[in-house]
Amino acid sequence: MFCNQCEQTTRGDVCYQWGACGKSPEVDALQDLLVHCLRGLSQVALQAKSFGITTRDQDEFTCEMLFSTLTNVNFSADDFVAFVNRAIALRESLKLQIQALGNPAINSAIANFQPAGDQQQLIKQGKDLEFEFIGQSAKNVDIFSLKLTILYGLKGVAAYAFHALELGEHDEDLYVFFHEVLANLDAQDKSLQEWLDITLQVGKMNLKAMELLDAGNTNTFGHPTPTPVTLGVTVGKAILVSGHDLLHLRAILEQTAGTGIKVYTHGELLPAHGYPQLKQTYPHLYGHYGTAWQNQTHEFEHFPGAIVMTTNCLMPPHETYKDKVFTLGPVGYPGLQHVSIRDITPIIQKALALPGFVEESDRGTVTTGFARNAVLGVADTVVNAVKSGNIRHFFLVGGCDGAKPGRNYYTDLVETIPSDCVVMTLGCGKFRFFDKQLGDIGGIPRLLDLGQCNDAYSAIQIAVALAQAFQVNVNQLPLSLVLSWYEQKAIAVLLTLLYLGIQNIRIGPTLPAFLTPNVAKLLSETYNLKLITTPEQDLAACLG
Ligand code: FS2
Ligand code: SF4
């Protein structure tokens, strides 16, 4: 196998025997095969679009399938076999429509690829293709590095686009971009600069995808407002909902209303409590249980109710608790029950069969809901606090959490940041410090939870609005970005920030393994992108 798409890749290089995430070489090969089939589908979809044929099914399928190959989403070989066959069926249905208009369908190797008839043969096909793909690195390792950056970034964009389309937000330009990038990923005639341009285009289109998702979330659930969330539990039956999918959370809340079951959020669903249409409509959305994804084996083990994974990050479940874990949407794992969101009866039955909490516990509260509308609603106060010197500097300390050592940096940094500075955060990286009592500056909380990693758009909008208020560009603001990355959405967000020309970003805990020294040097020279060092050193540099 060859996979280096996430931060925990083996030895900081590549997973080649078994995924550090738990992905098997067989599933890895099937994921690569699926991407290969999507590339053929994209070629045909572009041709179909040029003839005015509707390709909405193929567009949405492409987003969902790229999302399914993201780290910690789907570990099921059976699912990927079905996805490969569906990709071919969708491709062939477009070819028939093209031919029915009197045109020959595109005649390339990937558009004509024929999948084998059984799982073992499909795995072999995936491994052969992988070998061929890696072979490209021999021609120009820096271009290969950028192709990986583009593919991984595109997976992140697909995740955002998938969430947006679930909420009814579409964009034809975005779909065309997906297809164009996939259809041409094998191109041999482009220069390093041209691949770099495409890399930044991924960042540009990710901004569009995040904007769509922001519109989908706020139109459906209202603008988040600052909301205290209990970290304790109450007596009674319980369901724990993890992942990022607010629509799935709402469906679970709807179907559990009146059952007496309390619903708790886990991981990246903490910010759900800030959405008025969720919190106010469903009083049985009780509180938040647990922390970031890498702690789930311990936290799920002890949760006395049913557990639902709506998206990443799923870890291979332990035998001791796997019978109470359910998957939804693009998530899959062999042996876990996959449920349709239209009928969650098996989840409710499991929650009722399990003991639930038998004792109250009080673990205090945290406040979420400081998304762009809430922060910009008090923009004058914030601007005045900066002008008067009460706020010296803003830090955005956000991104992903992870299991590898070195991430205590983020806790230590936040604890060391002086009391006249404000810390904005988002993503599951916040769980390193989300319950710290940092106080406030003239009524402005020093720790502002902007939301999920899916809400990076909010952070960008806040930075742009502050820059306008101070009549400077974003790079001149008293603002430092200190990001933590783990998976491919973080790559997409980083590309967006680079596309926007944001300088001086610090990233950690390590640089992506898929960046060659030359590409990393190029990014560092152009954008002053740098690796984190120590909290003390970075803090001094940011405040200096
Ligand atoms: Fe965290 Fe995992 Fe949010 Fe990432 S729950 S690292 O894939 O999506 O952030
Ligand atoms: Fe390894 Fe990450 Fe790929 Fe999993 S997703 S196989 S941990 S690089």
Automatic annotation (TrEMBL):
Keywords of the record: 4Fe-4S, Cytoplasm, Iron, Iron-sulfur, Metal-binding, Oxidoreductase
Primary location: cytoplasm
Record's cofactor remark: Binds 1 [4Fe-4S] cluster. Binds 1 hybrid [4Fe-2O-2S] cluster.
Localization: Cytoplasm
Reactions listed under catalytic activity: A + NH4(+) + H2O = hydroxylamine + AH2 + H(+)
Domain of life: Bacteria
Needed co-factor(s): [4Fe-4S] cluster; hybrid [4Fe-2O-2S] cluster
Any single Pfam family the record assigns to this protein: Prismane
GO cellular component: cytoplasm
4Fe-4S recorded as keyword: yes
Binding site for [4Fe-4S] cluster: 3, 6, 15, 21
Enzyme class, first EC level, given as a word: oxidoreductase
Transmembrane segments: none
EC number: 1.7.99.1
Database matches in HAMAP family: Hydroxylam_reduct (MF_00069)
Function (record text): Catalyzes the reduction of hydroxylamine to form NH(3) and H(2)O.
Entry similarity comment: Belongs to the HCP family.
Name recorded for this polypeptide: Hydroxylamine reductase
Organism name: Tolypothrix tenuis PCC 7101
Species lineage: Bacteria, Bacillati, Cyanobacteriota, Cyanophyceae, Nostocales
Gene that specifies this protein: hcp
